[in-house]
Write a structure and sequence with these properties.
Elements (H helix, E strand, L loop, with lengths): L2 E6 L10 E2 L2 E2 H14 L8 E5 L11 E5 L5 E3 L8 H13 L19 H13 L10
Parallel strand pairs: 1-4
Antiparallel strand pairs: 1-5, 2-3, 5-6
Helix pairs in contact: 1-2
């Protein structure tokens, strides 16, 4: 089974700043992520791929996490210099889940990064999915 974390390279650095030190936010996120990934014990279980654009321009600094027969997640508004550790924690939870579903309370929140997308995701899951029925038509 192929499991992939997609990182958008084109995303701007912040809402009001396209580049930081000459590079977009997606590139910075990737540069923070790759050294951790190279030494990550579960590297063989997950690929990291870059994409030119995830079409999440309203929520830049986007990533997508997906696998065959699993839920696919799309997160944006990630702090590009502070999200790498939390993303690998998210990937571990995802790999450990049979269907990709991650309990909202278990979503990682970095001490240095606000990770607002994870909190929004938690609220969405709580509103739309009960503990007894994880699948719901929206």
């Amino acid at each position: 089974m192929t499991r992939v974390l997609f990182v958008c390279e084109a995303c701007g650095f912040s809402a009001d700043r396209e580049l930081y030190e000459g590079q977009p936010g997606g590139t910075h996120l990737l540069h923070q992520l790759m050294p951790l990934y190279e030494n990550w014990a579960r590297k063989s279980e997950l690929e990291i791929q870059t994409v030119g654009c995830l079409c999440a321009c309203e929520r830049p600094r986007a990533i997508a996490l997906g696998a065959t027969n699993k839920i696919t997640y799309l997160f944006g508004d990630l702090p590009p210099l502070e999200s790498a550790e939390a993303l690998l924690q998210l990937c571990e939870l995802y790999l450990d889940s049979e269907d990709g579903y991650i309990l909202p309370a278990k979503l990682p929140v970095s001490e240095t990064a606000a990770m607002p997308e994870f909190r929004l995701f938690q609220q969405f899951i709580r509103r739309n999915y009960s503990s007894s029925n994880r699948v719901r038509t929206l």
